[in-house]
Amino acid sequence: MPAPLAQRLAELLGPRYVLSGVECSPYVLEGRTPEAVVFPGSRDEVAAVLGIAAEASMPVIPWGGGTRMAVGAPPARAGLVLGLSRMNRLLEHEPGDLTATVEAGITLAALQAELGKRGQWLSLDPAHADRATIGGILASNAAGPRRHLYGTARDLLIGVGLVLADGSFVKGGGKVVKNVAGYDVPKLAIGSFGTLGVIVDATVKLRPVPDVDHLVVTPLDRLADAGPLPRAIMASDLIPSALDVADAAALNPVRLAGVGGERTDGGALLIGFDGLAEQVQWQEAELARLVGRPGAVLDGSARDDAWRALGDLARRAFAHATAVMCWSVLPTQVAEAMVDGRAAAERHKLGAAFAAHAGVGVVFAVLGEGGSAGDVTATLDDWRRLVRERGGHAALEWAPLAVKERVAVWDPPGPTHRIMQRLKAELDPRGILNPGRFVGGI
Length: 442
Hints:
The chain folds into 3 domains: 119 residues, Uridine Diphospho-n-acetylenolpyruvylglucosamine Reductase, domain 3, CATH 3.30.465; 100 residues, 2-Layer Sandwich (Alpha-Beta Plaits), CATH 3.30.70; 95 residues, Alpha-Beta Plaits (2-Layer Sandwich), CATH 3.30.70. It is built from 16 helices and 19 strands.
């Protein structure tokens, strides 16, 4: 980085909040070391940093907790990493309105702890809550198993503040649930991966903390059973908060209480129920009747450990995973896709593990170690093909740089690409925000 530029940043933020050289090593991305890492402490400082970067045509990579930074094509140049960890305050909490306004750098775990003091919570549960920030969750549209009932960030975001590439500030939405005025900036920001603007604050809808929150683990004799059983549950009077399925390879390292950590050929259904104690008790009994056997009921730390382990599937399923791919298919196709995906990996002599939010059709496929680079590439190509043949979409969630150089991270963008390009050109005309990392090279 040119010395005058570094000096301007140090004068703006203070020298302790501008990292360079070896200090940038924790922020190396796809083998690219950033020229500097900066930590603004306010919206105005974010705007000033972006203004300086725009003048110098310096690429800027927004960075929350780093939990989703592996998603995306490798950057041509890391440029400036803009960390938001200092912007971590709960700005407003209105318990009566069930809303909260937060800065983007607050972690989900910290926010839940604050909201829990008033008996409320944000019904999002992506992996790594201790590190994942609200801004990063929104920017990557991250969600966990409870999306089955409570939806994703799109359903919970009321308003958002964005700093655009030229340093200007845009506010979309409002602070009340019924606010519908103005351009729908919140919907644009969600899932944009920092390519349109830097999220600096957000207003979200909350819910009361449920009286009871259980996870029921029901073993499956065959992975193929993961098709009809979830369909039967969704067609019943049950209202699960989560409806997941995991195969044996995904469950082996988890050692779920009540399952005994034993290896099975099929895997298990993982079904969440929350609410009033009487309602949860009835639903658990009805589930046992529906599937023909009772499952293991997990609560408290055992429940949280199970969800956490499955959320960290890539690191737990294999000592050294070679890739993680996320599929989106119809819920009715989840089991079939998992079975076919396992067969594709076996053809190339590779292990694989699968876990899915079965009720919404999101599958996480982890490829194990072994085999050549060609075998890894061929398996990932087979996986993408089998998903697209079902009308779905596939994206590489994580892979080494050598794999990303051979396998596309995103599916082809399709006819919506022109609209995306126009939005990018309007909001980031110099192309400095996360350039080249999103769909279609945006």
